[in-house]
Structures
1.
Amino acid sequence: MGHVNSVVLAVSKCPNPTVFQKTLALNDFYFGSEDWEYPMGHISFVGKLDGVALSIGAPKLAPGFTLELMAQHSLDFWLTSEDLPDPNNRVTLDRDGNIVLSYTPNNLEPHKRLQAKLQDMMKQQTKCPEHGHSCHVGLFSRSLFLGQRIPLAGVAHQNGTIRFGHDPKTSALDVNCKAHDVDNLYVVDGSFFPSSAAVNPALTIMANALRVGDHLMERL
């Protein structure tokens, strides 16, 4: 499992001179909203884009100075929704030992709704503190690759592939992340995750590693 990711770019009349843009996040819709009871995900700023980054997803004929001007006036958002488990999404080996990745995206409707929530918020006109006019004049999606959504190749947070549970017939690890069949083998990375949450998994992996560490101390 990965995440359902996309990059959304808002263009403002006001320049955006921020340097450390990736310091603000919004989780108001993480567990749903009044009009949608299911989790939608996480909205955060992505590191400030420049003309070179924009050129990856722009038409080949787009002039460089136009892209650089857009970058100077852009607010750059990273949207993440949960990737749900699917038994058909898996990593296997073929007869020649080659890695085979089978993956079909899911949970796309909540992600579309998350994008819509961001667009609705950006339509609320705000005044530029310097010039006094309304700032946000446009919102459109772009991707670091082709299309509007970040494909699996752009994922840095792979999760899943090693199920945990009580029954060795249906899981590889027990609830303490110990292999059912090997007494001294524990797996404490993101592979035991039952789903890929809509946030960076690092802190959850660390917390679980501390939990497993306490279990090992008790065993010792």
2.
Amino acid sequence: MQLLVSVRNADEARDALDGGADVIDAKDPSRGALGAVDGLTLARVVSVTGRERPVSAALGDVCGERETELLAHQAAAHGVSFIKVGFAGVSDADRAGMLLAAAVRGAGGASGSCGVIAVAYADADRAEAISPAAVIRIAHDMGARGVLMDTAHKEGRTGFAIMGELRLGEWVAEAHRQQLMVALAGQLGAGDFSRARSLGVNMVGVRGAACVGSRTGVVSRNRVAALAAAVKERQTVASVSDRVWGSTIETRN
């Protein structure tokens, strides 16, 4: 299992990198669960990270095919390894599928070097988004590289609390059956990592737990280091599916 840390600028990217994050994720927390940073900021994050770690970029909750394809293309052009798209406000699975397909096209297609991660929300009803099960279906059908379970509303409840461990575990298992990588985020802390690992999650994503002053605060190198140590505690040799998220980016046939 690997650790993704969301950063809002190049300075935070350096602290996350020095702290031992496996993936650096560019995201603006002031703009919601998947708030996108501007192009200049993304370029600086990629420049700071270089080839040391993969970079992912949040594109936000998508609403238009043309805009989604363009945003995906622009992010991929910066050299990121993954882009993340969500579907808050999109309750129709067919519509969400078309938006995801646009993101995949913009990122270079299903076999491109930039993979697309479809984001499901544990609180999908509140977000007026398609169900987590539907996200798995469209991710598989449209050529996404993986799925991420997150929370749209940041009010202290994790996916474990909202969905329950059994239901969340079934969702993870189904995503793996569809040959998708699986990440888990949404107000997680170090105490959640062992449960995530037991479910077979490939990656855990954090923002607030890595910051001084909650998710809108500043990423702390020391906090990232503590989280990285917690991820690796009692961890055996990484599986092939874990390494997909790292420096060896593989594609799904």
